[in-house]
């Protein structure tokens, strides 16, 4: 058995019925295809004859007036069929969702270094890439605004500032027995989905377009493509079978490449494919927002928090993109799981001449949480108490359970129990003593440990997005086709939703075939994001399956002349008393009885009432909880760091699929660890991204993951009525990696107990060494 | 003379034209062979999604090496069998032990990196001596990025699959590879565009004289990026790997001599035997895939200021042999590097061999590779130190750094100041350490700031002295698995 146990005691549904398919570990729906290399990604689809390929010409400066581009040499290059600019867009040259602030191809102004300015369409991808480099740009270059400091100095914003004011933090700070203040720099993060951005478009008759897109949001790709082409949305069909990773990067930002392919297909009348080279993908697609958190905290001598004032300065880049929601989520999570009697949570959405930052797993939440975790460490260091004790003393508890945005937290005992259990199972206290003794020897190497709790709100904070649709077809042999608006990007959504449908029909998982997400099958879907994929699509699919089942029951009831209530669906059979037939036999019988075996299901999350302008209501259906204990060792001569052990206890409610959930927890944690340690985005003075490929941008490799990595699930039912009482798991575990950052902070703190540790994220060897130097001096 | 490149693919001999031979192997597989299981993730040899296995005869046995197909020219597969993920399960059913373990232990999520990971592990499953350790698995996977799983299930799948005994190599593979072998030079194409692989040095010099503008590649782990990223036009390609004797590794009583085209993988054992820290630097050199293709000579000849071998070999007192026609000359390795990307190499001249004197027992060698990420990362700074210790004092010192200047360079002033240093008097060291920090004026770039580089260089010397003075590695290093090797010094 692997270290991280994926078998749980059998779960039951709300009616107390044992579950057959749900709550068990099943492989990701395509796992067999993955390991044999047979899973088809968009670039693997056999190209129709005559397929052309695109490559973009990218802006060579970060900011300036674009007077023109000399494309003569591009057009004359071998195998070039067409060169497209903003002037060739038949509809609107606009890819922005709501704020009309980012064009498909640059027009008039350059917004960032690497912005697509034109697209070459050629017989081969190589020919397109070569030709794209032959343009001469006529740009009047201007001094770019690149950093958070630049933008604050220049006062540039993509959106107005927005605050939560809870109580009176200013006066509470002035009366607090003790205060601290500082800044924390929090780096951005490149998604580094292994499959780069790609879209393929095949023109059809009468102005229609079929688009294959590696996107988390086929509906948005359809919407934007129709807008670019100037055609009705019904003329554009978008299909997504699987993504080679998304992580938020392919939520809004997949649209541009699919739309470019469609534009070229319209212009040439031939199938067109746009696949970005990795370097171009780095340069031209957005990343996690980097932040500077300016914080002040008031507390008492025991380290109990009294007041918190934080300004979350977020670098949004050149356009709004998803920065409304991202920075709002940072604000919602600015208190994590801690009670703040008086708090002011400020946000500044800074406009810079850089690529527009976008969704990334956690969607701002991790940045808000990292800031307050730093504050908790600073308070612990100032009071001389163990950081775990300070954290525990500040957790939400009955009566101290309202967030700065006014939502009451009902399940405060869940997290408290998690922290207590993890404290025990990780052997935190004994290891703390051991580490203190080790560090007392005053050597080169220092060890650190931290146990970090997490509370993460689940739901789209834009209320209307909390909906999903599904389509279920039962065929006469009893096989079932499943389709829903959610996309499969590796997170295991397809298998989880298939489990729900199989459970509903009482058939084996193998009888349910998940199919490619398609705007033609399920329209008007929300993006697969916000950790809500299985909550939303699982419910919608269950609604659809239940409708069909409700139609099948009378067929069996009439056939056997028994009461409908006596009929049961289980293990591939339908039975009543001693009468029984296979599910397929009943399906066949239903068809002969002229009963429809196809149904759609729709679901909307109940009770989401957040009003952004009034700052009132409930933005989340529920919270997911978790905690991680990380131990690290650092070298104070070089800044090198090694994570020695990690223990995680995480709350997924009643797990739909423990193996998939553990995979999300481990993968999310390691991705978060990368964000906070080795993954560093460096822009040069001209605004060019210097870390533009895996050779220079370092995501974790196998050896970065501790050999001692223990992950467990709480398996405690969600108090909210979610699908089989499960909880979303996509994003929250990433934030557990704050434990690594705090553990490094802890190790550094041993150099000068009582001092604030001047460590910023990511904690690269350089940052660790410089912090150590500063503490020693 | 042979006019095409030949390799074995799915039981058949494939013959490539000059144009095909100059494609990357990945493009050939995906665009010409419809083998789309192999993926492109980065096109620069860093992510491993394109990993395929080249099976070759080496010293009478078949070896299976994972390589990055994205930066390997298809012509470089000459003489090999090219194995891709499809070949592990020709019927479509999962039956290879690595695939089976990956499936059962949930080793894939989005699946895009999976074929490359499966191929890296399949190579290990076939060739790695048992038992296979977790460390060995992590080393094997250093060049395979996965963004979804966090690697834990992949590492466990590898350990489980490799818990079984090493499988026999299919006899037919060795037979076919042996039959494919020939002694011919390759010249595919014509004067204007060709892929050439000379068999003798004389033929090589002749080609270099006739086509001075040709792209000369050995492993192509650097030059491959000129093709995939810089998009250079390279109609004429000369591949060095078939030149007889140019890859020979010889050990005499006084020196280890390594032919320029010996791959880092093939040279690893002999080089590593010189000093545990050199073995550790090589363990962290690129990745398994990169080491299988990259050559020792290439790492020297491209004169990168951040190549890992040069500072180590300079500290060890290596010399370089250059040849042009019948003329050869030998120079200390450090003298080869003149200025940033400029070497003392004359037109028509090639790097032929690197000779490293065998360290005597009194020599203490330390090397530290400082990177943002521990494995598969390019050095911000690499410090290499070779000391002779007489009693408790330093009797001679060679100190070399990568990443501190435009070239790999010795710290000659510091070397002088080190002479006579008392290992038992650490309070006397700081002026010396400051001297080192003042000796270089490094640059700031995306890997590290100048300030950090200077500080780390100083601290590495400090660390080397502490270790040589007797500090146990467990007190000076966070990665301790080299401790056993050092203990045997």
Write the layout of secondary structure elements.
The complex is a heterodimer of chains A (777) and B (489).
Chain A: H1 31-36, E1 52-58, E2 64-70, H2 72-76, E3 80-84, E4 109-110, E5 116-122, H3 125-132, E6 136-141, H4 148-154, E7 162-166, H5 169-175, E8 178-186, E9 198-203, E10 209-213, H6 218-229, E11 236-240, H7 255-268, E12 272-275, H8 278-284, E13 291-299, E14 305-317, H9 323-332, E15 342-351, H10 365-383, H11 387-394, H12 412-425, H13 428-440, E16 445-458, E17 467-474, E18 480-484, H14 493-505, E19 512-514, E20 517-518, H15 533-560, E21 568-570, E22 573-576, E23 579-582, H16 583-592, E24 598-604, E25 622-635, E26 641-650, H17 658-676, E27 708-713, H18 732-735, H19 738-749, H20 765-776
Parallel strand pairs in A: 1-12, 10-11, 14-15, 18-19, 26-27
Antiparallel strand pairs in A: 1-5, 2-4, 2-6, 3-5, 7-15, 8-13, 9-10, 9-12, 11-20, 13-14, 16-25, 17-18, 17-24, 21-22, 22-23, 25-26
Helix pairs in contact in A: 6-7, 9-10, 10-11, 10-19, 14-15, 15-16
Chain B: E1 5-9, E2 12-16, H1 18-22, H2 25-32, E3 51-58, E4 61-68, E5 81-83, H3 85-88, H4 97-104, H5 114-127, H6 134-140, H7 152-161, H8 171-180, E6 186-189, E7 194-197, H9 201-210, E8 215-217, H10 223-228, E9 236-239, E10 249-251, E11 255-259, H11 264-272, H12 276-283, H13 288-293, H14 296-301, H15 309-315, E12 319-324, E13 327-332, H16 333-336, E14 337-339, E15 342-343, E16 350-357, E17 363-370, E18 381-390, E19 393-402, E20 409-410, H17 412-418, H18 430-439, H19 450-468, H20 483-487
Parallel strand pairs in B: 7-9, 8-9
Antiparallel strand pairs in B: 1-2, 3-4, 3-5, 6-7, 10-11, 11-16, 12-13, 12-16, 14-15, 17-18, 18-19, 19-20
């Amino acid at each position: 058995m692997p270290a991280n146990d994926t078998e749980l005691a059998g779960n039951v549904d709300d009616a107390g019925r044992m579950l057959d398919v749900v709550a068990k570990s099943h492989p990701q729906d395509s796992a067999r295809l993955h390991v044999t290399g047979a899973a088809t990604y968009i670039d693997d689809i056999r190209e129709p004859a005559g397929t052309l390929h695109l490559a973009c010409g990218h802006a060579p400066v970060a900011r300036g007036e674009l007077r023109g581009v000399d494309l003569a040499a591009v057009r004359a290059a071998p195998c070039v069929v067409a060169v497209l600019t903003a002037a060739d867009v038949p509809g609107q040259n606009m890819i922005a969702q709501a704020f009309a602030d980012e064009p498909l191809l640059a027009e008039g102004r350059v917004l960032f270094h690497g912005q697509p300015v034109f697209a070459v369409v050629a017989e081969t991808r190589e020919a397109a890439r070569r030709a794209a480099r032959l343009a001469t740009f006529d740009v009047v270059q201007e001094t770019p605004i690149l950093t958070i400091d630049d933008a604050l100095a220049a006062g540039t914003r993509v959106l107005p500032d927005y605050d939560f004011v809870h109580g009176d933090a200013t006066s509470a700070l002035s009366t607090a027995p003790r205060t601290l203040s500082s800044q924390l720099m929090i780096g951005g993060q490149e998604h580094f989905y292994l499959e780069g951005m790609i879209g393929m478009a095949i023109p059809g008759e009468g102005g229609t377009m079929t688009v294959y897109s590696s996107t988390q949001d086929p509906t948005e790709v359809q919407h934007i493509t129709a807008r670019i082409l100037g055609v009705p949305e019904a003329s554009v069909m978008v299909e997504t079978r699987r993504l080679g990773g998304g992580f938020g990067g392919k939520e809004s930002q997949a649209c541009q490449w699919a739309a470019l392919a469609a534009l070229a297909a319209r212009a040439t009348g031939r199938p067109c494919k746009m696949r970005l080279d990795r370097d171009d993908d780095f340069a031209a697609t957005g990343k996690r927002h980097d932040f500077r958190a300016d914080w002040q905290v008031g507390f008492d001598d025991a380290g109990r928090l009294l007041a918190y004032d934080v300004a979350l300065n977020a670098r949004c880049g050149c356009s709004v993109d998803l920065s409304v929601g991202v920075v709002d989520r940072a604000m919602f999570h600015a208190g994590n799981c801690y009670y703040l009697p008086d708090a002011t949570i400020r946000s500044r959405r800074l406009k810079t001449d850089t690529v527009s930052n976008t969704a990334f797993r956690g969607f701002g939440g991790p940045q808000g949480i990292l800031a307050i975790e730093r504050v908790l460490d600073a308070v612990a260091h100032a009071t001389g108490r163990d950081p775990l004790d300070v954290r525990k003393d500040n957790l939400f508890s009955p009566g101290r359970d309202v967030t700065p945005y006014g939502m009451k937290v009902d399940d405060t005992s869940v997290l408290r129990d998690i922290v207590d259990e993890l404290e025990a199972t990780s052997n935190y206290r004994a290891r703390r003593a051991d580490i203190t003794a080790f560090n007392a020897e005053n050597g080169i190497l220092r060890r650190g440990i931290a146990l970090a709790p997490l509370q993460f709100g689940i739901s789209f904070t834009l209320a209307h997005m909390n909906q999903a649709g599904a389509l279920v077809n039962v065929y006469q042999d009893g096989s079932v086709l499943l389709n829903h608006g959610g996309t499969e990007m590796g997170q295991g959504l397809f298998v989880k939703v298939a489990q729900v449908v199989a459970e509903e029909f009482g058939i084996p998982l193998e009888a349910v075939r998940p199919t490619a997400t398609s705007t033609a099958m399920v329209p008007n879907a929300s993006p697969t994001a916000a950790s809500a994929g299985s909550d939303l699509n699982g419910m919608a699919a269950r609604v659809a399956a239940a409708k069909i089942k409700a139609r099948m029951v009378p067929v069996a009831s009439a056939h056997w002349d028994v009461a409908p209530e006596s009929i049961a669906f289980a293990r591939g059979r339908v039975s009543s008393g001693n009468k029984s037939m296979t599910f397929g036999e009943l399906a066949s019988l239903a068809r002969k009885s002229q009963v429809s075996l196809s149904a759609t299901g729709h679901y909307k999350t109940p009770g989401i009432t957040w009003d952004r302008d009034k700052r009132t209501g409930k933005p989340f259906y529920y919270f997911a909880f978790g905690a991680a204990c990380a131990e690290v060792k650092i070298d104070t001569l070089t800044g090198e760091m090694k994570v020695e052990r990690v223990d995680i206890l995480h709350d997924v409610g009643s797990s739909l699929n423990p193996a998939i959930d553990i995979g999300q927890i481990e993968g999310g944690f390691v991705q978060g660890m990368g964000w906070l340690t080795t993954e560093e985005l460096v822009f040069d003075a001209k605004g060019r991204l210097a870390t533009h490929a895996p050779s220079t941008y370092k995501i974790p490799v196998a050896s970065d993951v501790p050999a001692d990595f223990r992950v467990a699930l709480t398996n405690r039912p969600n108090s909210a009525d979610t699908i089989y009482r499960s909880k979303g798991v996509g994003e929250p575990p990433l934030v557990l990696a704050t434990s690594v950052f705090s553990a490094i902070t802890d190790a550094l703190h041993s150099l000068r107990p009582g001092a604030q540790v001047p460590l910023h994220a990511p904690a690269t060897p350089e940052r660790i060494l410089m912090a150590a130097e500063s503490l020693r001096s | 003379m042979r006019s095409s490149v030949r390799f074995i693919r799915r039981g058949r001999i494939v013959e490539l034209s000059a144009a095909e031979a100059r494609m990357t192997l990945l493009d050939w597989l995906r665009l010409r062979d419809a083998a789309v299981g192999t993926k492109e993730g980065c096109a620069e040899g860093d992510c491993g999604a394109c990993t395929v296995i080249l099976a070759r005869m080496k010293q009478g046995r078949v070896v299976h090496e994972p390589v990055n197909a994205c930066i390997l020219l298809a012509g470089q597969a000459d003489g090999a069998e090219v194995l891709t993920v499809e070949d592990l399960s020709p019927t479509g059913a999962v039956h290879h032990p690595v695939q089976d373990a990956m499936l059962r232990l949930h080793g894939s999520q989005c699946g895009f990196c999976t074929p490359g990971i499966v191929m890296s592990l399949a190579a290990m499953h076939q060739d790695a001596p048992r038992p296979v350790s977790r460390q060995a698995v992590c080393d094997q996977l250093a060049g395979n990025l996965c963004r979804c799983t966090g690697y834990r299930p992949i590492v466990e799948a590898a350990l489980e699959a490799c818990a079984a005994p090493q499988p026999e190599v299919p006899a037919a593979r060795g037979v076919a590879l042996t039959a494919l072998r020939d002694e011919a030079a390759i010249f595919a194409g014509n004067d204007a565009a060709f892929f050439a692989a000379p068999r003798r040095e004389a033929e090589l010099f002749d080609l270099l004289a006739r086509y001075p503008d040709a792209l000369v590649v050995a492993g192509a782990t650097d030059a491959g990026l000129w093709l995939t990223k810089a998009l250079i036009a390279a109609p004429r390609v000369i591949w060095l790997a078939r030149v007889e004797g140019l890859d020979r590794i010889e050990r005499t009583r006084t020196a280890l001599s390594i032919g320029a085209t010996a791959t880092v993988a093939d040279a690893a054992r002999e080089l590593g035997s010189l000093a545990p820290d050199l073995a550790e630097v090589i363990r962290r050199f690129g990745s398994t895939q990169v080491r299988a293709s990259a050559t020792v000579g290439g790492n020297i000849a491209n004169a990168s200021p951040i190549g890992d071998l040069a500072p180590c070999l300079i500290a060890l007192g290596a010399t370089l042999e250059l040849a042009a026609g019948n003329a050869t000359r030998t120079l200390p390795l450090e003298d080869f590097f003149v200025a940033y990307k400029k070497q003392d190499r004359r037109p028509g001249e090639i790097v032929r061999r690197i000779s490293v004197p065998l360290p005597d027992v009194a020599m203490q060698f330390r090397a530290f590779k400082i990177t943002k990420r521990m494995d598969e990362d390019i050095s911000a700074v690499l410090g290499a130190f070779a000391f002779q210790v007489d009693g408790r004092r330093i009797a001679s010192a060679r100190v070399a750094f990568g990443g501190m200047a435009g070239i790999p360079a010795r710290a000659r002033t510091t070397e002088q100041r080190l002479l006579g240093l008392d290992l038992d008097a650490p309070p006397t060291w700081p002026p010396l350490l400051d001297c080192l920090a003042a000796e270089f004026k490094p640059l700031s770039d995306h890997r590290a700031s100048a300030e950090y580089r200077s500080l780390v260089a100083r601290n590495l010397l400090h660390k080397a002295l502490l270790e040589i003075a007797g500090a146990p590695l467990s007190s000076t290093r966070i990665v301790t698995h080299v401790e056993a090797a050092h203990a045997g010094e």
